[in-house]
Amino acid sequence: MRSRLSPLARLFGAVATLGLVLAGCSSPGEIKDPTPIAGATTFSKLRIGISFDQPGVGTASEAGESDGVTVGKDAKGFDVDTATYIAKALGVPAESITWVKADPVDRERLIEDGKVDLVLSSYTITEDRKRRVDFAGPYFVAHQDLLVRRNDEELTGPDRLKGRTLCAAANTTSAQNVLNRYQGDVALVQPNTFSECVKRLTTGDVDAVTTDDIILAGFAALPANKGVLRVLNKGFSDEPYGIAMPKGSGQLVTQVNQALTSYIADGSWKASLERNVGPSGYKIPDPPTPGK
Which class does domain 46-142+241-280 fall in? Predict the structure, then answer.
């Protein structure tokens, strides 16, 4: 027998169905305010070095110079969210952060010269760097990959690099990995920034850009590069990102690791990645364990 429902019952049924559909939809989570760390090192403000030209990871507009460094405004990206969360856990509100431009060639110098308090700039932890700075983290593990022109069907992975010209920013593990693995087989160009590398790729001056997959995904997702560039997704190294600070900062390292642990546990870490790099199609990995 065919049941007969009143218009009001049909309306309630439709609303209930819509609610189930919406409940099943996933959306980026929320970046939460951290609980202040008890006994944290007292800061009234923080100068934090970030990349100004890495979409999804760290971008900012130059806003002038202060104390001999370039400072920025409108900072955004995964590194920026991470830095802001840590600052709040140390008792520093977002408006008391000064964003300092930290290109790969300048990161150690900025810390050693006292120009910044922290650096979060897709900064891989290495033994050589630990001789000059202290690191908290890791807070993310990326993998070195290749960005190529979409119509290049011959360059399908790192095993096809012989005779090619690659571009990687100077003073990066990406550049050093190429020199260690492919010296004599490839030509390596090393400008100061990866944005310059991407520019050279689009104009045909180099065959590929190589750096961390999360950085390449951000460049590939830019409107100007969609349908023009693609990431090969053939990662060939592990790149654990750390938060750098001056040597001898043992207590601060511990406190920052506490903040990172909360950042991951309360869902803010994943929410930031979903918001900043999720739209590019980048597959978000499992989080690392800070301090390990």
Answer: alpha beta
